[in-house]
Every structure is written in structure tokens, then in C-alpha cells.
Write a structure and sequence with these properties.
18% strand; 5-stranded antiparallel β-sheet; Aminopeptidase; single chain; 6-stranded mixed β-sheet; 2 domains; 398 residues; binds zinc ion
Length: 398
């Protein structure tokens, strides 16, 4: 009888241990869904420059940024409020994010100012505008509701309704801190990675952020009213650079949130300039030299989840090494690099970093990878992971 009850106690203890562990796992918070909102669209062109419209630039950068997140963060679901030139009401954009229970909302816009010399990037979170300039930005972005069918959706809320904004932020609690943290990360990436003028993190009362029930930002990627910047913003390579900065800020944020959720960090990085991880030196995956597959073996097993299982596409990646050993693709094993995956081919495990849909984007990642793996090089493959000649791939993806 005694033995049975001891066994019983041990059994219950083990069960309790696993229940607690399972609970701890579900409680660990991670960034699983992001909503990318391309500002304006359809009958609402947004701000206009000499030859282009905000809605088109915003959509292009939004699709590129979302594409980078989908390809490189297979555990993250990317939802777009629009993927084409269509009119979506502001409150519907928030609804899309709320319905998806998104963890982050990124609204992408292009700025305008009567001063033709204004330039640079700024990222807003919901808050009381501290100056006229910020208030003007919010008013201009909110203006679109004059084109909507039912403005009563916004219950009279306006960009200068400070009381309502303060109440909103009180209700949002921790989301505000996280919005500020992410806004700081985006601005940091624009400045450090793309070299854009930093107009820093700002606050104002934007209707599109009003109803979102998650950390949310509105990022202005440049001024369409500045002749030089308008030209720069319409160049697809530059759009790719901005998209890459948004993607990297997203990864910074995801790491920050997940580390904080695991109790590894307790501070808010908003006050810190750069939250880029400082990687611990770790051994290269294998001393074996990377080998290029030129024979006709059967198509290798697809490794990370591709963006789409049915569509055919070409992707670029950076091969960092190859060897006979399978190594866990964690940053610790790869000099701090995240987004590492492997493809099993010709009896070797080939390790790659990053996945992009354009050559330009992968070249942006190359310096960082080469600083850790000097012999790393760019490869192109198709959706079945078949290796392609770079020149052939670049002709098809340009
Ligand atoms: Zn806008």
C-alpha cells in the first residue's frame, strides 16, 4: 500500500512538473504575427511629389519588407492590409490587425512638407504631439477619412484631442513601451544601415493607430516633397534598402521581446541607441570547404518553410560553410548569425544565412556575414532548392 502511494506521489509530481513546464512554454511570449500596412491606396494617393505618389512607394516598400520577414522568419505570419492599389479605410486596417491578433502593426508612409528641403525618416507612435510639425503630419495622414463612407467610426477623435490620446495610452499600457522600443529600432536601422537622416521617434494622434490592440508604429520613410528624396524613394534598390532596414528592425524587436519574455532582459532599449546583438565567437560550422553542387542528384529536401508551397520562385542566400555534420542552426553555433538554415545535398550539410527574393537584398546582408565567414558567397536557388547560376537567376529576378 505504502509503495503504491509513493509511486503515486512520484507520478503526480512528474505530471505536475510537465504541466508547469508546458504552462511556462505557453506563457513565453513571442512575436508570431506582424501586420504590414501600406499607407493609402486606390482613390487616396496620399502625398504627391513632382512625379510620384505616396501610395505606390509605400506599397512597394511594404511588400519588400513583408517578403523579407516571410522568407527569413518562417515562424512569423505576415499579413498585409493591402497587396494591391486599393482603398482601405483606416479603421479597417486596425480591424485586420486586431482580428489576426497581431503582435505588431507597422504602417508605412511617405512624408510631405511645404518646406521643399525637409528630408529624412521619422517613426511615430500614438501620443500627444509635442510640436506643430508632428500635429501637421498626423492631420495630413488622418485627412483620408474625408474619403471614407462613415467618419463616425472615429467618434470625433482627432489629432489634437490630447485627453483622448492620453486615455488611449493609459489603456494600452505596455503596448506603448513596446511601440516606442520598436520605433527606436526602425530609426536606428534607417540611420545605421541605410544612412538616412534621422528625425527620430515622434508622437502624434494617428487614427490608423487609434484602434490597434497591439504595439504599433507609423513610419515615414522620407519626403516626397523634397525633389532629391522623391527620386531616391522611387528607386527600387533604395526601396529594397529601406525594406531591409524595416526587416532588420523587426528581427531586433522579435529578439528583444522574446529575450525579455524569457527574463533575459529587463530594460527598455528605447533609451539605448543600438540593440544589435553582440555575438559570441563560436567555431565555424565545419572546416570542410563549401562545395558547389554541379551534378544531377535528385532535388534536395526542402529545408525551411518556403514563402509559398505552390508558386515557383527564385531566392538568394549566402552559403557560409558545408560539412558532414549536422549542426543546430542557432546563433551560438554560427558566430551570432540568425536566419541560418541548411540544405542536405551531395552527402553534405550546407549552411546558409538569409533568404531574399532580390539579389540587391542579399548583397545588403553579405558584409555582415563575410565579416564572420570571409569565404561566404551568394547562391541562387529555386523553390525546389535547385541551384541556379547567379547570372541566370539575376536575369529572371530583375
Ligand atoms: Zn501617408
Amino acid at each position: 500500500m505504502r509503495t503504491i502511494s509513493s509511486i503515486h506521489i512520484i507520478f503526480v509530481s512528474i505530471l505536475m512538473f510537465f504541466t508547469i513546464m508546458a504552462q511556462a512554454q505557453t506563457n513565453a511570449y513571442s512575436v508570431k504575427t506582424v501586420v504590414i500596412d501600406a499607407g493609402h491606396g486606390g482613390k487616396d494617393p496620399g502625398a504627391c511629389g513632382k512625379f510620384s505618389q505616396e501610395k505606390n512607394i509605400a506599397l512597394s516598400v511594404a511588400l519588400k519588407a513583408g517578403g523579407l520577414i516571410s522568407m527569413n522568419c518562417p515562424d512569423v505570419k505576415v499579413i498585409y492590409t493591402r497587396k494591391t492599389d486599393e482603398f482601405i479605410e483606416l479603421h479597417k486596417r486596425a480591424e485586420i490587425a486586431n482580428k489576426a491578433k497581431a503582435d505588431l502593426f507597422i504602417s508605412i508612409h511617405v512624408n510631405a512638407n511645404t518646406n521643399p528641403n525637409s528630408n529624412g525618416t521619422e517613426t511615430f507612435t500614438m501620443g500627444v504631439a509635442k510640436n506643430e510639425a508632428n500635429l501637421r503630419v498626423a492631420k495630413a495622414e488622418n485627412d483620408v477619412i474625408s474619403l471614407e463612407s462613415d467618419a463616425s467610426q472615429y467618434q470625433g477623435m482627432s489629432a489634437n484631442d490630447n485627453e483622448a490620446i492620453i486615455l488611449h495610452n493609459l489603456q494600452q499600457g505596455a503596448f506603448c513601451d513596446n511601440s516606442l522600443a520598436f520605433a527606436g529600432m526602425i530609426q536606428n536601422r534607417y540611420k545605421e544601415d541605410v544612412g538616412r537622416k534621422d528625425r527620430s521617434v515622434q508622437q502624434a494622434g494617428f487614427l490608423v493607430l487609434w484602434k490597434t490592440a497591439m504595439p504599433s508604429v507609423l513610419t515615414e520613410i522620407g519626403f516626397i516633397t523634397n525633389e532629391e528624396e522623391e527620386k531616391w524613394l522611387n528607386n527600387s534598390d533604395n526601396q529594397a534598402e529601406l525594406a531591409y532596414a524595416i526587416y532588420r528592425a523587426f528581427v531586433d524587436y522579435k529578439k528583444y521581446i522574446e529575450k525579455r519574455s524569457n527574463g533575459e532582459i529587463t530594460h527598455n532599449p528605447q533609451t539605448e541607441q543600438n540593440v544589435a546583438p553582440s555575438p559570441k565567437p563560436a567555431p565555424a560550422p565545419s572546416p570542410a570547404k563549401p562545395t558547389v553542387n554541379n551534378n544531377n542528384k535528385p532535388a534536395p529536401k526542402p529545408t525551411p518553410a518556403p514563402a509559398s508551397k505552390t508558386e515557383s520562385y527564385i531566392y538568394y542566400s549566402i552559403q557560409i560553410g558545408a560539412g558532414k555534420d549536422k549542426i543546430a542552426t542557432t546563433p551560438e553555433n554560427f558566430n551570432g548569425l540568425s536566419n541560418v538554415f541548411y540544405i542536405e545535398e551531395d552527402g553534405l550539410f550546407k549552411y546558409y544565412c538569409g533568404k531574399t527574393s532580390t539579389y540587391k537584398e542579399i548583397t545588403l546582408l553579405l558584409p555582415e556575414v563575410k565579416s564572420k565567414y570571409p569565404s561566404a558567397y551568394v547562391v541562387a536557388r529555386d523553390n525546389t532548392n535547385k541551384k541556379l547560376q547567379l547570372t541566370e537567376a539575376r536575369q529572371k529576378t530583375k
